[in-house]
Amino acid sequence: MSHKAIFIAATGQNVGKTTTCLGLISGLRKRFANVGFMKPVGQQHTTIKENLKVDKDVVLFHEVFQLDSRYEDMSPVIVPPGLTKQYLDGELSFDRIRKQIVTSFHRISDQNDYTIIEGTGHVGVGSIIEQNNASVAAELGLDVVIISTGGLGSAFDELALNIAMCQAKNLKIRGVILNRVLDEKREMILDYFPKALARWGIPLIGCIPYSEFLNTPTMRDFALLFETDFLSGEKNSLRHFRDKRLVACSLEAYRAEMVPNELVITPASRTDIIEATLKKHTEEDFRGGMILTGRHAPDSDLMEKIRTSDVPIIYAPMCTYEAMKKITSYTAKIRTEDQSKVNKAIELVESHINFDLLCKTPVQV
């Protein structure tokens, strides 16, 4: 059975499904009057009205595009910690989970002219409860688009593994989208990747450039990462930073190298560095931010100075080394309130997708 809907899968986590789906929905809305969104199986969830748990991406799409579908249908199954054990113990049935997804999909697809279905992680995620991405797409009778990172050899190898799972379910592949393609590799990839895909007869329908801005966390992201509150400057919580800098040098060296729009990470005991930063921001619009670290928070006198500042500052109660490890390994997500990132994602993706190929007849592989 053919639906005016498509399943968006990926070769792994943090490949860019959500970013890509923002651009796809925006572009499709220029071709169809009503476009819906659904994430059948979610992991990272949030609680909204009446203690309803829904996937975080669903909240993003519901609010950004002002969708009319019920949250319960857009996010029918959440997999919180412990659910897999319940399933394996027989406390949850396959039929119940399957019916939730199918029923919700038909409600949403009946309301819309076209529907985007976003998967979770790589194609095999969800296998423990017999609801991996390939199984869900097959159950819903949907064709698949697979997103991969923008490379050649390694990207194609990961893609081949995920296509093999789609083949096992007799799924039709609509095309491949490469995300975060570096400018210096773009011409080469556009030349060689379609040649590699030709063995399956699958088109390359998108080649999305890498965007440093989309991959830059905000201060609110860092506050959530460290599970802490703002000491000051919460009104600037969506500030992005051009540079990050660990400061352990002398005050003189720090002052000599201060630059605007920089995130400074330094121990909370470095009163001299903190006060110099606060002073600099009173003198000019420096648009910086600070993450303070260490076993002890700033003392009361320093806290009083911090609270009167507009500089976004948070305190992470851990050693600087551990804080830096968390910061450098963190992948920024697009949040509903970060309108600048939402707009950039839509503009970037929409302008690099071949919507004619996306909407053409799929290929059986």
Classified in CATH, the superfamily of the largest domain is P-loop containing nucleotide triphosphate hydrolases
- The percentage helix is 40-55%
Main sheet characteristics? 7 strands, mixed
Total helical elements: 15
Mean pLDDT: 92
CATH architecture of the largest domain: 3-Layer(aba) Sandwich
User: Would you identify the regions where 5 or more consecutive residues have pLDDT less than 50?
Assistant: none
Estimate the strand proportion. 15-25%
Specify Rg, calculated over alpha carbons: 23 Å
**SS-based class:** alpha/beta
Task: Report the strand count.
Answer: 16
User: What is the fold named in CATH at topology level of the largest domain?
Assistant: Rossmann fold
First-residue to last-residue Cα separation: 17 Å
Whole-number tally of structural domains: 2
Overall outline: globular
What is the CATH first-level class name of the largest domain?
A: Alpha Beta
Produce a short descriptive summary.
This protein is α/β, with parallel strands linked by helices. The protein has 15 helices and 16 strands. Helix 1 (17-28) packs across helix 14 (339-350).
Please describe what this structure looks like.
By secondary structure, this protein is an alpha/beta fold. It has 2 domains: 5-215 and 337-364, 3-Layer(aba) Sandwich (Rossmann fold); 219-328, Udp-n-acetylmuramoylalanyl-d-glutamate--2,6- Diaminopimelate Ligase, Chain: A, domain 1. 40% of the residues lie in helices and 20% in strands. The protein is built from 15 helices and 16 strands. Strands 1, 2, 7, 8, 9, 10 and 16 form a 7-stranded mixed beta sheet that branches. A 5-stranded mixed beta sheet has the order 11-15-14-13-12. It is globular, with a radius of gyration of 23 Å.
